UniProtKB/TrEMBL annotation:
GO terms for cellular component: cytoplasm; nucleus; plasma membrane. Keywords: Cell membrane, Cytoplasm, Membrane, Nucleus, Phosphoprotein. Residues 141-152 have a biased composition (Low complexity). Residues 131-179 are annotated as: Disordered. PANTHER family: SRC KINASE-ASSOCIATED PHOSPHOPROTEIN 1, SRC-ASSOCIATED ADAPTOR PROTEIN. Residues 131-140, 158-168 have a biased composition (Acidic residues). Residues 14-117 form the PH domain. It is found in: Cell membrane; Cytoplasm; Nucleus. SUPFAM superfamilies: PH domain-like. This is SKAP1 protein. The gene is Skap1. The keyword Cytoplasm applies. InterPro entries: PH-like_dom_sf, PH_domain, SKAP_fam. It holds the Pfam family PH.
Length: 179
């Protein structure tokens, strides 16, 4: 049986971006570092973070739907402040990250924003199940249209069907052959 998410790093599905980031911990411990290195994986809907790239269980994950991503230089005061970005959503936890470089931080933000545009677009199916339901809906409406279309045809051309019946009766019937 397959496990339902959370998943090991290798099984997170269609990975759009992955790599090491430093994530700010929610509880700022007096002894511990407030920034912890995490292997982060972004797929079509979910952001996962792991202790490292070989971890079987994520330290956490969240659906990125309704989040927004932006560079956030105010998160750090040191030389890496231009490497910071945050994911925010009204009424939900804000996630704060530091990338290895300013270019990497921008790339994470760009990838997440691109994905959020896809998620908010109604023209792109979110997953195969939605696509299948959509297909079934189209299928059932087609059969309704076909039925009404055939009925219309039969009413328009009653003579053709009668002629066809006459033809079929003549052909298979055995007539005496001239001797």
């Amino acid at each position: 049986l397959e496990e339902i998410p959370p998943r090991p790093v290798q099984d997170t599905g269609n990975i759009l971006k992955q790599g090491y980031l430093e994530k700010r911990s929610r509880e700022h411990s007096f002894f511990g570092s407030e920034w912890q290195k995490r292997w982060c994986v972004l797929n079509r809907r979910t952001f996962y973070y792991y202790a490292n790239e070989k971890s079987k269980q994520p330290k956490g994950n969240f659906s990125i739907e309704n989040y927004s991503a932006r560079l956030a230089f105010h998160l750090r005061k040191d030389s890496r402040k231009k490497c910071c970005f945050e994911l925010t959503c009204p009424g939900k936890r804000t996630y704060e990250f530091t990338a290895p470089s300013p270019a990497e931080a921008e790339d994470w933000v760009d990838q997440i924003q691109f994905l959020l545009k896809d998620l908010s677009s109604l023209t792109i199916p979110f997953d195969e199940e939605d696509e299948e339901e959509l297909y079934n809906d189209v299928d059932s409406s087609d059969s309704v249209n076909t039925t009404s279309h055939n009925t219309t045809l039969n009413q328009d051309e009653p003579n053709v069907e009668i002629e066809e019946d006459d033809i079929y009766e003549v052909l298979p019937g055995k007539q005496p052959k001239p001797e």
